[in-house]
Prior knowledge:
There is one protein chain. By secondary structure, this protein is α+β, with helices and mostly antiparallel strands. The chain has helices at residues 18-25, 31-39, 112-119, 152-163, 236-243, 292-306; strands spanning 4-6, 43-45, 48-49, 62-64, 83-86, 90-95, 143-149, 168-176, 182-186, 190-191, 199-200, 210-218, 222-229, 268-276, 283-287. A hairpin with a 3-residue loop joins β5 (83-86) and β6.
Amino acid sequence: MPDREFRFVHAEEDNLRLDVYLVDHIRDMTRAQIQKHIEDGLVAVNGRVRKSGYRLRPGDVVDVRVRDYEPPSLEPEDIPLRILYEDEAVAVIDKPSGLVVHPGAGVHAGTLVNALLHRFPEVRAVGAPERPGLVHRLDKETSGVMVIARTPGVFVDLQRQFKRRVVQKTYLALARGRVAASGRIDRPIGRHIKDGQRYSVRTRKPKEAKTDFRVLEQFDDFALLEVKPLTGRTHQIRVHLAAAGHPLFGDRLYGPKKAKGYEPRIFLHAHRLGFLHPVRKEWVEFVSPLPLDLDTILDTLRAAKTRPAGD
């Protein structure tokens, strides 16, 4: 890859973090690669090496000396997996909360990918080398159902289904406040203007995003929702519900920084996944039951709801 030089930082990018600026402008490098370049002193602003958090100003000249990095080798690891279904084409798993899906910045082992290479070694030749077998992902704290491609042909087929919105995804989420019975949030999403770790409905580069929801159970301060993202933007459910005034239980990134009560993790669970089987050409659906930790939270809310006032 050639070295890069960006001579003009536009006025609307004033005060933007250096790493966020580069992620937006360099499409053939991953975020982790960009961070590595910055850490190694290969990125300069106005001739001076800067760190990731440097805030840009209009007129700044950004230089990137591009170095080819050998990605760390992915090793199989005997990490337990809950398999909901498997055949010669796909594997459907129930991902637990806390399991990182694939290696990234600062994470090189102990991921779902390492577990897949141990359980399904053939996936090493499927998809991107650093994300073998993966056609979609879930955040670290999000639990629930995922489909894995076991052959290159199946990978292409499933990718096409996700792109064409054939795949149907249903989540269970606990949102703050009293929520309308049902609705659709139709607000474009993109990377946050100033914080590269977040996404927002206020962004310089918006992408279409639509989310349907309905209330399954309303509590005093929370609502259990069935959520169906019609598009697949990063953090879409979290961003949309926060923008609507209903951030998720346990979400420190898009909701309150400090919880009033015990909120051990984000209440977001990939409950159901449906797709056209790439080989059998039949519609299939798989369900992941709500994990015990999230079910316990609901039990606590239900108990408080039924308890007489003054108890």
